[in-house]
Amino acid sequence: MSGYEAVIGLEVHVQLRTRSKMFCACANRVGAPPNSQTCPVCLGLPGALPALNAEAVRMALALGLAVEARIQPRSTFYRKQYFYPDLPKGYQITQGPVALVEGGDLDIPGDPTVRGATGPVRIRLERAHLEEDAGKSHHEAEGQSLVDLNRAGVPLLEIVGAPDLRSALEASEYLKTLHRLVVALGICDGNLEDGSFRCDANVSLRRSGEAFGTRVEVKNLNSFRFVRQALDHEIQRQAGLLGQGQPVLMETRGWDALAGETRAQRTKEAAMDYRYFPEPDLPPLSIESTEIEAVRASLPELPERQIQRWVEVHGLGLDEARTLAQSPAFAAYFETLARLSGTARGAAAWLLGEVSRTLNERGIGIEAFPLSPESLAGLVALVEARTISFGAAKDQVFPALLVGEGSADAIVAAKGLAQVRDRGAIEALVAQVLAAHPGPVAQIKGGKDSLRGFLVGQVLKAGGGKVDPALVQEVLSDRLANA
Ligand code: ADP
Ligand code: MG
Ligand code: ZN
């Protein structure tokens, strides 16, 4: 990118999966009829008083502990004032200069094209603070806008990352890592399309070693792919400006996925003065060490730890392991399948292959996959034991399992798919094929090793596609060596 280095920092808004809203007892759930989940507090009626949700605090603590941040024993809430139709109070309650969670870091796979080497890089977090969400405006046809306040007052954890990312790829890796973490912690449902996990990206360019340049904030990034595309586009745009000697303006831009470009929304000069001041209706938030220890004791095994364990204990590739850890449900399915089938590598291959393909085709998650790990393990184990070939397993048994034709064993028996693994029978076939092809046999002895594949193919064919290829290779090698 013509001598420039990209500098990126992400601000992520995580909607917390609490039962009730941040400062009132209204239910925190999506899909309810518009404005049915509201009360005087979240409607901002005069005289209504907020009360802090302890569950939201525990969820923020869980994130803080998972990233090894400094938990602040005392933090305060502030009012951030602005006017918008979906903000009935006229201000948002958010945290002030000191956040509940300060610092911490996340290890992500570095981008070798900018780091000069493969391997993890450590991205620092600036802070994570609690705040409340606004409602939602629905812009209807005929110039009508409707406001739904069910989301007003839903708890958010804003996680502000340091400007430590150096490419669009690193930004999407950071987001994936953070997403895996909040879902595994059980604090967020992780639904990007519904906006439960939202990201704003700040990006600037500089010549390496120089001070940071002017940053642009890109909004409306609701998929990992959009983050990558939008940042790649924005980096090119800024490089183009700087290359022509023009300044980059400090502004907010939105990603237009259809046009494949970012568009100016507002300049920072026009940004509002929020007139922050301490929220008089809420006392400072004090955290006892007993509370911290209780949350620490309840943390699950973290995804990064799990990924490392699978690589070390099961010999999986890092990318494979990361994909398997995409959600707690997927990870749990993998663990059970690996245990029941007795082969972690086989379990991983099936999940990343046929199972993922089926999920994509049907547009469902692993939660809705029709086969239990028990049922799939039967099939994985048959392939591992070489009772059936992988091809037969994939093309015949797996589809039959999916439509409920019985257990893998029963399907293999009914369709007569078991491989011939009787050495005597295979030796007979090999002898027959060698006798029928004296030319190739002589050529192999003369050093033309590439003809072995031809002979293996002839034996498999003679066996009607039901002989174990590994055993055929073994017998054939023996015969050729001793002939
Ligand atoms: P604001 O209050 O305007 O949002 P912050 O200081 O909170 O500003 O920074 C917001 C985000 O911008 C952080 O994620 C940070 O990493 C990122 N950031 C700050 N400076 C730069 C820069 N020069 N280039 C890219 N990102 C930056
Ligand atoms: Mg900010
Ligand atoms: Zn309410």
Q: How are the SSEs placed, and which strands pair?
A:
Layout: E1 4-15, H1 40-43, H2 54-66, E2 70-71, E3 74-75, E4 77-81, E5 91-95, E6 101-102, E7 105-109, H3 112-115, E8 120-132, E9 136-139, E10 145-148, E11 155-161, H4 168-184, E12 197-207, E13 216-221, H5 224-243, E14 251-256, E15 261-267, E16 277-278, E17 285-286, H6 289-298, H7 303-314, H8 318-324, H9 328-341, H10 344-362, H11 373-384, H12 390-402, H13 408-415, H14 423-436, H15 438-445, H16 452-462, H17 469-482
Parallel strand pairs: 13-14
Antiparallel strand pairs: 1-11, 1-12, 2-6, 3-17, 4-5, 4-16, 6-8, 7-8, 8-11, 9-10, 12-13, 14-15
The chain binds adenosine-5'-diphosphate, magnesium ion and zinc ion (ZN).
Description of the molecule:
The chain has 483 residues and is α+β, with helices and mostly antiparallel strands. The protein folds into three domains: 4-286, no CATH class; 301-415, no CATH class; 423-482, Arc Repressor Mutant, subunit A, CATH 1.10.10. The protein is 41% helix and 20% strand. It has helices at residues 40-43, 54-66, 112-115, 168-184, 224-243, 289-298, 303-314, 318-324, 328-341, 344-362, 373-384, 390-402, 408-415, 423-436, 438-445, 452-462, 469-482; strands spanning 4-15, 70-71, 74-75, 77-81, 91-95, 101-102, 105-109, 120-132, 136-139, 145-148, 155-161, 197-207, 216-221, 251-256, 261-267, 277-278, 285-286. Strands 1, 2, 6, 7, 8, 11, 12, 13, 14 and 15 form a ten-stranded mixed β-sheet that branches. A hairpin with an 8-residue loop joins strand 12 and strand 13. Helix 7 crosses helix 8 (318-324), helix 9 (328-341) packs across helix 10 (344-362) and helix 14 (423-436) crosses helix 16 (452-462). The termini are far apart. The model has no long low-confidence stretch (mean pLDDT 94). It binds adenosine-5'-diphosphate, magnesium ion and zinc ion.
